[in-house]
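Bit of a strange request maybe. I'm writing a small parser for structure token strings and I need a real example to test against, not something I typed by hand. Could someone generate the tokens for this chain?
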Amino acid sequence: MTPLVLIPGMMCDARLWGPLPDALARRMVIHAPCTEADSVPALAAALLADAPPRFHLAGLSMGGIVAMEVVRQAPERVERLALLDTNPFAETDAVRQRRPPQIARALAGDLAGVMREEMKPHYLAPGPRNQAVLDLCLAMALALGPEVFARQSNALSTRPDQCDALAAYPGPALVLMGRHDRLCPLDRHETMHRLLPASRLVIIEEAGHLPTLEQPEATWAALLAWSEGSGGAQHPA
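Reply from user aminoacidic:
Good idea to test on real output. This should exercise your parser:
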């Protein structure tokens, strides 16, 4: 079976994907961190250097941004592409200007404070699991540390627009988002769905920016259908 490469979001690790379904027991699953470089092209190149010759690729948030760059650099190696709660555009000036003070604060010892402010509860859908999800996000961030925060922030601030890369990618693609995602809202996902010629758009109800943790069963059902070649991965007429 084709290996599956999973890329987590900013300041997240493999725990972002939750317990993997039993259906993946026979498949090679590779968790690809995006922690060692300070540019999206360099992160994608590092992933490609370590990845199998052909693979399925899924990324969430920053992981999706890196996944799009992987497709730009080596589309022939990505058999299937899944983009979750992410953004195909270059960073806006307003967001870019906020990053240097955040980096300085994190490197000065207040990474936890920066993350608490950035992980605003309105990123998630309303529900009783919010605090547990936010606690896990903070634990992942603190495990990675402030240097990773600085590198990832710099990578995001200089990332390229990927619309052309998506339009040129011919493989089966899944574009998935949580209904309540305010960080990467619906219009971003509709754009990616429109650009990808063989894509399916899935919206997970009762989820926000982190559907893998908020609604794991529904999210993995969509991912498994995409990875196994079912689930209607075609662009509607």
